[in-house]
Amino acid sequence: MQNPPLSAPRRRGRRRRLALLLTVAGVTALHAWLLLGRRAEPDDDLPEPESAPSVSVQLRAAPPAPPAPPPPPVPPVPRAAAPRPAPKPAQPAPMPEAPPAVAEAASAADSAASQAQELTGAPAASAAEAPEAPVAVVPAEAASAVVVPEPEPEPAASAVAATPAASDAPGALPAPPVYATALPPPLLRRYRLERGLLWGTGELRWQPGAGRYEASLSGEVAGINVLDWRSGGAIDAAGIAPERYVVRRRGRDPQAANFQREAGKITYSGPTTEFPLPAGTQDRLTVLLQIPAIVAADPQRFGVAGARIQVFVSGSRADADAWSFHVEGEARVAGPDGEVQALKISREPRKKYDTRVEFWLDPARHYLPVRARLSSAGGGDALELMLESEEKLP
């Protein structure tokens, strides 16, 4: 049985496939001949590399340099003859110690000179500069109080010990003047205390009677007692006459100043320093009452701008000095019941770390401070007291 003849399109397809297979076979055979036949022939076209000529190098050491000729010898310098030691000066004979009376007199003159400089505004000669025997000095303590900042001493400052016999020393200057006073009746005053960002409350209690008095100033901040001052003594022709002034500070022992009227001197519970005790001397608490009493006794004289008041004031840390108050004039300030036409009086500091005091005295309230500001010349926040209320005591 014979296969049927292929159609024309199918015949043409078979021819094309056959031609493609023959072409592939021929190309494959050609590649094989090129690869296998050429690898078997020697590679004569590539020239062999020529060998580089060798060069030999020899290193020889350089000949040593000839030695330098030695320098000519230096002629020796003749030695100077050693100077003969100078004879030692004879030791000066020791200065004889000054007798107690001379030291006391010089101490009193120094203290009086300090007072004169405050009262007259001119520097006074110090007794230590006179051709006398050396005077023993006692360094003053550095201190600062919570309400009335106590003065810090300068590095070279010193307090001179004084005794009652010093008032009889030659050249001693007079004490501050004595003024008439009009003291207020017994009363209790409440203040608002402010210092920087802190504030609290304070109480000033004044209780006179039968020629004696008791006074206290206390303060609290956030329920903590930060101020406790107490003063007690007599009332005489010069006004308030303190006998003992005590300051208590939290976490410290009390410190006290003793005003010995019969002996005429001020002594302290800690330091051995002493100061003379002139009439009218105040402590740092009673000066808040004595100054208003002086103005109230003579407002025609002390209630005008330009007037001055001098008072000798002592703290509790062996610090005492003459304070000079200057009347600046009238000023309106806030009071417990509105604005008050007050009399401003101030005390300027005389030295570093001294206390600046400013009072605004109310004529309607016995010239007692309706406001007070106390600060230190050395810087820091000032402490202010502003009257909030007042009541009479029996």
Please explain how this structure is put together:
The chain is an alpha+beta fold. It has a domain of 69 residues. It is 18% helix and 32% strand. It has a 15-stranded mixed β-sheet. Strand 4 and strand 5 form a beta hairpin. It is rod-shaped, with a radius of gyration of 53 Å. The N and C termini lie far apart (161 Å).
Count every helix, treating DSSP H or I runs of 4 or more residues as helices.
4
Shape, per Cα inertia axes: rod-shaped
Report the order of strands and helices. HHEEEEEEEEEHHEEEEEE
β-sheet strand percentage: 25-35%
Give the helix proportion (percent range). Answer: 10-25%
How far apart, in Å, are the first and last alpha carbons? 161 Å
Which sequence of strands runs across the widest sheet?
A: 8-7-6-5-4-3-2-1-15-14-13-12-11-10-9
Average pLDDT over all residues? 74
Class of secondary structure makeup: alpha+beta
Counting DSSP E segments of at least 2 residues, the number of strands comes to: 15
The biggest beta sheet reads: 15 strands, mixed
Supply Rg: 53 Å
Low confidence ranges? 38-59, 92-173
